[in-house]
Amino acid sequence: MTTTAPTWTDSLTDALKALESKGPKNLLNLVAVLADYPVSEVDVAAYLAAADENDGAFVKLRIVLAAWDASDSLALLGADGTPTPPQTKERRLAIYGALGLGADTRALLDTRMPTVPRGPTVVISKTFEPWYRTARLARSCVYWEDYRTYLERKHWNAEAIGNLDVSTSQVVERLADPTRETAKRTKGLVVGYVQSGKTANFTGVSAKAIDAGYRLVIVLTGTIEILRAQTQRRLDMELVGKENLLKGQDPNDPEVAKEQDYLQDPDWIAGKFVSHGTALGQPGVVNIERVTTRSKDYQRLPQGLTRLKFHKFDKSKPLNHPDNLFRTDAYVAVVKKEKNTLEKLIRDLKPIKGGLADLPVLIIDDEADVASPDTTNPKSLTVTSGDGKKRTTINRLITQIMDLCPRAQYVGYTATPFANVFINPDDDLDLFPSDFVLSLKRPPGYMGVQEFHDVGADFGGSTRTFGNSNELAHVRSLVGDPETDPLQREVELRQAVDAWVLSGAIKKYREAADSKGKLTFLHHTLLVHESTRKADHSEAADAVRAAWWQGKHASTAGRVRLRKLFYEDFLPVMLARAEGHPIPATFEDVEPYIAAAVAAMTVDGDPVLVVNSDKELQAQQKKLDFDADPVWRILVGGTQLSRGFTVEGLTVSYYRRKAGQADTLMQAGRWFGFRPGYRDLVRLYIRRDEKVDLYDAFEALLMDEEALREELERYQGMDESGRPLVEPRQIPPLVSQHLPWLKPTARNKMYNAVVESKGTAGGFQDRYGIPDVGSPANQRNLHHVGVPLLLATSDTVEKYDYDIDGNRGIVQARVGVVSAPEFRDLFASYEWHPEYREIIQPLTNFLTTATDDGRIEDWAVFWPQPLNGQMVEVPGLGASPVVRRKKRSKARIDYSGSTREHREVAHAIVRGETVSGTGSGVKRGAVLIYLVDPRPQVAGVELPAPTEADIVPLLSIAIPSSATPRRRDLIQWTVRSSEDPMAIVV
Length: 986
Fold this sequence. Notes:
The protein is an alpha/beta fold. It contains 32 helices and 27 strands. α1 (9-20) runs parallel beside α4, α4 (56-70) packs across α9 and α10 packs parallel to α11. The longest helix has 28 residues, at 486-513.
């Protein structure tokens, strides 16, 4: 491709900037006006055919097309006169038509800038006022435009920028218009992936919100200072910008240098901080004042906030009137979710309470599932908030800010939303995302759970290889308990350290071999995470140091181990997955770079850092400052490194910690994220043995995560009248649980959680919560459920052999098949004892959904026929065998269950085996049905022979493996609501 562009392409760039927010218009006419001479379509086509991928006008066109492709508010009609959906061929054709482009140019654009058929988000939302599109055209877009330009300089691709534009607009348009006459609060949740770019999204939302008129942006970070400082720097560099940081001061003045955070920052020196230039002097463009800095969390700065009440340029109008709002500076506070800090902020807000009524406030809650949800036990006594409700501290303080600021908008961000969707939706002041839930799609280049597992992979009977199996490529098993087998742990730690050294040397090799000079590996880290206890961290650090020093990587023995690791592990994976990056053909090619890697790792002597408290982080912030210096370290820690804080350059992970909650475990997966240039070098050493299989647990998490996103996608969108199909509080099962021991979140975050659906894969479940003996419900169950099922069985009694642990015998049964819809309806009509409803209703819901989704096709009905059973005449059935399992003096609802031999024979059906009289089917369940006499019996008193009125049908069912993913149990949770008074509390 040529690197010399025609002079008129500057005008093309200006034309695209002018059209970007307004929509496509005749492009050649506008270019001609700006260039002051005509530009033909032949010229444009020739340029597009030869342009370099990084040419300015070419990049701008690609970005603008991607934004128009993805926009859900762009009103472009197709050939049939109907609106074109985003990211479709119809939308792109409508764009070409509006631009006035001919067939040749269209063909070139389709080839070089194809439509990407993938939306950036899934949104569940209430109906909202469509104010933002009009406001975006009429109000300043300086902060958003400059942020987008910053991302272009960072070489974000057009698709990623276009998706960010769309997703951030989808958030902002659901907030209240800051110039709205009456106050309106909204609360939403943005669900991303662990370490997947959520900060970029809320930076974009903040930029657009400030452009639109929000004048106080409060960003709540996690609970540790280093994360707050990391977020502050990101916002300062990418949003606030040089001019707002300097505020007209001379950076060369020594006194100014003392007060500035970044004058010695490498990115400041390199000119990477956003510069707004003269745009800040334009009408309607406001300055941004920081009330927190990189080195300091919120301090009482009354001049920073109280000035807002006096900045009514037209005092006859409210602060949020456009005449005042777009002449008033915006304020940004980046604060930890910490009691003293939030109380300081509240104390500074209270004196201006009168002005707060008209102040548009945006609260962004990063890691929204930590500290923010109310974890108060309803039975306990805690401090009450302003609304009189008992709340935990951080929740009380956040809701207090919301209460003080009638125009406050709340947007939570998290990758693990389980705690957030369990918040009480009926508490208007609490933080349930009642207005919208937005699920971000996986960004390109992201390595998440899917990249480490082979879920859904079909190897077609072929051998798994490093190329087709993520597990083989990236995962290395740790076995045994370190306390009982310390020698095994030493071996495994040394293997992980060796992998870190070798992968670091390969990175050095790639930097040297990259002819284009684009591969730079500033950071290279190894994470060791075994426990949350500080004492354990100290011991682990000593063990890692021992592995490091005993490794002697410069010695002959060390080189022998690295050579073996290179040929047996790293080389075959690189050959299969290097994605075009340089590959050393032999160990001798990479060997010279080992010394350089070791030198970077030992720049301070000891490569090991213990990171297990905020104080420890603060003490070592210089060594962990990814923004200032290269970090080639082994990090040993626990909770402090498993929440929000980004471990840059993470290549090797050594993970043994078991967590009982899904969100805790998922956040511990620091090996998720972007690994440009070294995806093939990433290794996960993870515990997998008979006691704890953490790899299996993460696979269950993958299915939990996908199930949540599938539910959101299923119910997104609007009906024909333009109303939402469902609102956030109405979403059917939000959260799934695929491992019995791995709850979605901590118990104290699940007081409002209810089981919506529950299915057990494969095994039989006895369902014997019968109504009271002698009740009419039992007779209805017999005639409306039992008889129809039994009539489906064959008249012929079949004999089946069984062998259970060497005990052999024969089972006699009548067998038949009923369709899944028929069984669903019969099961749903069965009447249970009221005390049994909380157990049976989730199963009923599961069977209904699994049947409707086609995961169950039919059911094999087994009716055991005892050799010497008592017979009762049942209308419609004739003489039928009746079972009495156990003598009881009192009636009970938990009647005894099925027998092992019956389950063994019937279970062959759910294993997909053929059983005489039923055929076979992988989507077939099995139901055991008995007619029983449940009457209590007093000792020494003989009961009269049972009659039809005494008989109850009892069911045991085995759900087919097709109904639950990978033969796992499946529990689905939702949230208790006053709209559902029958919700089942667990």
